[in-house]
Design brief:
Elements lengths: L1 H17 L8 H12 L10 E5 L9 H8 L3 E10 L8 E4 L14 E6 L1
Antiparallel strand pairs: 1-4, 2-3, 2-4
Keywords: Signal
Length: 116
């Protein structure tokens, strides 16, 4: 299934470029789509997912702390850095996985939060 989706995504990008269409995107939208896609678990395929923007700071809050501010039952399950532009003029991101939830450095700029 994943290979079919990857193939379809490449086809859509190719067709947009072929017709001269410039893709517009919001970093918030990309982050929320990423967090939603990463949140799937067969046992709990429902619930609220948040992509919370995080400021770049070496003394700032961790994503774990940011998710707890939403509510005591929320936790960080993934972190991501969404870039403004990539070398190909399309959205690009870097995922940190769980260690990113604990980091205080200027790494992830979005925290993926969900209820426990």
């Amino acid at each position: 299934m994943a290979s079919k989706l990857t193939w379809l995504m490449h086809l859509l990008i190719f067709l947009c470029c072929l017709n001269g269409v410039v893709l517009k995107f919001s970093k918030d939208g990309v982050a929320l789509a990423f967090c939603t896609a990463e949140s799937f678990e067969p046992r709990t395929n429902y619930g609220r997912i948040f992509a919370v923007k995080r400021k770049c700071s070496t003394t700032g809050k961790t994503c774990k702390d940011i998710c707890k501010e939403i509510g005591p039952t929320y936790n960080c399950f993934e972190t991501i850095n969404v870039y403004d532009k990539s070398a190909f003029k399309y959205p690009a991101s870097f995922r940190y996985r769980l260690p990113g939830c604990e980091t205080k450095n200027c790494g992830p700029n979005y925290c993926c939060c969900r209820k426990k």
